[in-house]
Amino acid sequence: MPDTESTPAPAPEPSPAPSPARHDAQDVRGGEIVLKRRRSRVVFIAGLAGFVLVMLIAALWR
């Protein structure tokens, strides 16, 4: 009788890598920012304002 407890199980076959999605250049041109929720808009505007504020502080720091 074979000792199955000490025999390692065979390794599973690796699955083939998925091919990357192909997009036509005309379809992906000119991205659009879609902010449907109020929270998304607030975070986006706060990020822009924060960036401008950091740049102003960096310019005045010199």
Can you walk through the features of this model?
The chain is mainly α and 62 residues long. Helices cover 45% and strands 0% of the residues. The protein has two helices and no strands. The radius of gyration is 27 Å and the shape is elongated.
How would the blueprint of this fold be written?
Elements: H1 25-28, H2 38-61
Structure classification: mainly alpha
- What does the main sheet amount to? none
**What is the approximate shape?**
elongated
CA distance, first residue to last residue: 81 Å
Number of helices: 2
Chain-averaged pLDDT: 82
Bin the helical content: 40-55%
> What is the tally of beta strands?
0
Element string (H = helix, E = strand):
HH
Strand content: under 5%
| Assembly type | single chain
CA radius of gyration:
27 Å
Which spans of ≥5 residues are poorly predicted at pLDDT below 50? none
Outline:
This protein has 62 residues and is mostly helical. The chain is 45% helix and 0% strand.
Kindly list the characteristics that best describe this protein.
single chain; 62 residues; mainly alpha; 2 helices
